[in-house]
Amino acid sequence: MLELRSITAGYARNAPVVRNVSLTVAPGESVGLLGPSGCGKSTLARVAALLHRPDSGTLLLDGEPVRRWRHRAPRDRRTAFGVVFQQARLSADPRLPLTDLIAEPLRATGRGDEVPGRIAELAPVVGLTPDLLTRRPHEVSDGQLQRACLARALVLRPRLLVCDEMTAMLDASTAAALVAAVEDYRAATGAALLAVGHDRTLLGRWCDRTVQWDSLT
Fold first, then answer.
1. 0.85 exceeded by the pTM?
2. Residue/partner pairs of 102-111 with CB below 8 Å, 24 or more apart
3. 175-217, pLDDT tens digit by residue?
């Protein structure tokens, strides 16, 4: 269970972009967060994934309050989340081939021995062929890079996925393939999903329920 209670958050003192927002994602549930660009939904998604400390409010994971964020959060909490951002090129190290990009979380958590097996398992799931895995971000398309970013989000087998406008910059066929990969993973593992976006039709088809941003405040 993920609960956000009365969250206020921003990036500059006294200038919050999220004000007094509450949201709940139950175990195994898929929740769509619908709102226009610039409303603060991406900031809330970062708070939900323990990547941004809120100015005030409470985040509970399995009923326990979260008190530490980012690298200071306990490993079991950090690794409970898999996150896919809208702009793959801003979230990928341009120096790394896709294999190493996907493997980053495993190596960061001391599980480098699992890299070959997980890469072999995930690459076909997200639609990456062996020749693409050796290429760096500038050598692949936006869609191919986002496939690698999804694999990176899945590599630690998270139980909560946060997809922040994951398909916004992709063509329809790639977007459909990535949504299908997320749903296959959820069906196999029971993972929950928070999908952030501005496409009402997509979220309506993808999620168990959709919450409109202006209903949260």
1. yes
2. 102/133, 102/148, 102/151, 102/152, 102/155, 103/155, 104/152, 105/79, 105/152, 105/155, 105/156, 106/155, 106/156, 109/75, 109/79, 109/156, 111/156
3. 999 999 999 999 999 999 999 998 899 999 999 999 998 877 6
